[in-house]
Structure formats: C-alpha cells, structure tokens
Design goal:
With about 100 residues, the protein is mainly alpha-helical. The chain is about 75% helix and about 0% strand.
C-alpha cells in the first residue's frame, strides 16, 4: 500500500472480511455522500473517485483476492511500514 493510495477497506469503512453485500452497501452510502452533484465540498470529486476505485477493486473477487494476498505479503515483509500506515489512517479518522 503506497502512501498516496489509501487502503480500499479503509476508504469504504469496512473490515477486511466484509461480505459482498456489505461492500455494496458501503459503496452506495459513500458514493451518495461524496457524489460531486450532491456534495459541494472541494474534495468531493476526488473522494468519490477513491470510493469508486475501492468498490471496483473489492467487488471483483479475483482482484480482491490478489489485493488481499499482496496486503498480507506486505505485512509479513515490512510490518513497521504497515503499522505506520494503519496509525496514520487511525489518526486521520480522529482528526476528521
């Protein structure tokens, strides 16, 4: 997970073991919240694209499985970097 791209599970606000239905519900909720036609915020369009990208990745079983394997491998190879990324995400949620 690079620093510029957030974890798709975090983007949608779901757990890594979320069901397909939970992914779909979270996408619909977030898409409605960040859709540029409904949200006048300056970052609404970029947030909407981020939500759409996360949904496209996680709703496709083969892409999701490949992402999960990469995520697991990263955790094993560089646990400090992953811990820092998780911590940044956590702090960002508190400050929001």
């Amino acid at each position: 997970m690079s620093q510029s791209v957030r974890d798709p599970y975090d983007v949608l606000g779901i757990a890594a073991n979320a069901t397909t239905e939970e992914i779909k519900q979270s996408f619909r909720r977030n898409a409605a919240l960040y859709h540029p036609d409904r949200n006048p915020s300056g970052d609404a369009a970029s947030r909407f694209r981020e939500v759409k990208h996360a949904y496209n990745l996680l709703s496709d079983e083969s892409r999701r499985e490949a992402f999960d394997q990469k995520r697991q491998k990263q955790l094993l190879e560089d646990p400090d970097a992953v811990a820092r990324a998780i911590w940044r995400t956590y702090l960002g949620g508190i400050q929001a």
